[in-house]
């Protein structure tokens, strides 16, 4: 069992639907495989993609899937999602 799963959102950054689908699929895959940590690569840029990902993760129906989400310490271009 891997200790983390990584998903890179650079290929889908233009579409909110594709971002939501990629994050949801990654969350389900990580939970199904029993992986404790999901790394979502948003890139440093202007921070708009990171904000959209954090807003999506903050929705009540998505929040039930994980324990905690945070911007990676020392790396603004990555969001860490700690699963239950």
UniProtKB/TrEMBL annotation:
<dbReference type="InterPro" id="IPR002625">
    <property type="entry name" value="Smr_dom"/>
</dbReference>
<protein>
    <submittedName>
        <fullName>Smr domain-containing protein</fullName>
    </submittedName>
</protein>
<dbReference type="InterPro" id="IPR036063">
    <property type="entry name" value="Smr_dom_sf"/>
</dbReference>
<feature type="domain" description="Smr">
    <location>
        <begin position="1"/>
        <end position="84"/>
    </location>
</feature>
<dbReference type="Pfam" id="PF01713">
    <property type="entry name" value="Smr"/>
</dbReference>
